[in-house]
Amino acid sequence: PGQNIDGDVTMYLDNIVFIPEPSTLALFGLAALGGLALRRRG
Questions:
Q1: Would you give per-residue pLDDT tens digits along the chain (42 residues)?
Q2: Distance between CA atoms of 15 and 31, rounded to whole angstroms?
Q3: What total of structural domains would you count in the chain?
Q4: How far from the centroid of its chain's Cα atoms is residue 33's Cα?
Q5: Which of 7, 17, 28, 42 shows the smallest number of beta carbons within 10 Å?
Q6: Which residues contact 24 (CB under 8 A, 6 or more apart)?
Q7: Range of the domain at 26
């Protein structure tokens, strides 16, 4: 099962790299901002 999960993750990352969808970039940006906010709070 571990190998299958790793393969799915790799394919998912490859899709993001080759097909940078605006929605994906937006979610990534929000996640980055959220992480910075949590770090500042801590």
A1: 455 555 566 666 666 565 556 777 788 888 888 888 888 887
A2: 18
A3: 1
A4: 13
A5: 42
A6: 16
A7: 2-41
